[in-house]
Every structure is written in C-alpha cells, then in structure tokens.
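Format is sequence with structure; example below:
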Amino acid sequence: TRWILENSDFAPQTLRNREIQAGKLRDRFDVIILPDSGPEEIRNGFAPGIISGEYVGGLGGSGGAALREFVQSGGTLIAFNDASLFAIDELGLPVTNVLAGLKEDQFYCSGSLLQVELKDTTNPAVWGLPRDPIVMFELGPTFETREGFRGNVLATYPKERNPLASGYVLHPERIQGKAAALEVQYGDGRVPVARLSGFW
C-alpha cells in the first residue's frame, strides 16, 4: 500500500499506537488506512518481550476512541480485509460479515482471483477501475448491510454466477450477490471497508 501511494505522488506517514491514542487526529490527517490485521491484533498488539518496544501493545480503548472521533469529525478511515472487522466493531457500523463463524468445509477461498461488479464507477473510492475488476480474495469477511446503514455499496460479487476467475472457492453461493466493499457514513466522515487485497 505504501509503495502504491508513494508511486502515485502521495507522502504517507506512519502512525504508531501512541500517536493515535493521543487523539486530535483530524488536526493532522484527512485519511487513515488500517492495513490487513485482525481486530485483536489491532486492539492488543504484541506483548512486551516479543518485539521491539515501539511496536508493543495495540490501540486499546483510547486508540479506538481517537479513531471514532477522527471519523465523526469528517475524517476517512480506510480498512482493508480483516481490519474492516475492527472498524465495524469499534464504530458500531451497521454491517455484518456473512462469513463469520463458518468452518472451512462451509466456505473456503484463499489466494484466489474473483470477479466483482462495481455499483457506481463515478464514486471517488473506485475511480480508474473497470466496471468488473478481478481481485484477490485472501481469507476474510464479506459484507451485508443492516438496518440503519448509510453509505454506498461499492462492489458486489455477481449474484447469478460463481465469481471465481482463477483458483478455488468452496460454496461460492455464500458470497454471491454480497458486498465486497462498502463505504459507510459515520458522523461527518466515512469508513470505506474492503474485503479485497489489491482493491484500491
């Protein structure tokens, strides 16, 4: 992600846990990206003694509160793959992961290429993408909106056919017609969440 941003003439900054926990993020940033990490990794991080001191711990409660404040005041929080589960939980977004709790014999897809369909190619979150891009699916969530959802469904898996373009998927019907990427309105800000590696 950093390589893509730098090669597109952006100048991304690295945020450490303490900087996020300190709050007032909207004073410095318009957009914050959460890379693919599980919710518990983001909240709790690594224990002392396992890794260098600056990387110990996670965001904790104060970090989650700072991110909520950032989005409510107009910031954009982009969450990739499993980090989207952290954003959904931490901000109480009206979005469900339809694959939650399924065992590998009920749904499995890892490292396969799947086709998605963009709902609105004029949305800034998907500018430059073809209407039906092929993306990598790497173990993670697929979304369904709940009552109270405000925002846009950015991309869905085809409803009437298997989305598989290359690789393997067991029980594709569980994701057919479901959302692969969403943009959720939250306060004055927004939270784009994407299941897909290489989507943006």
In short: Residues 196-200 have pLDDT under 50 and may be disordered. The chain has five helices and eleven strands. Helices lie at 2-7, 17-21, 39-44, 60-72, 83-91. The longest strand covers residues 179-186.
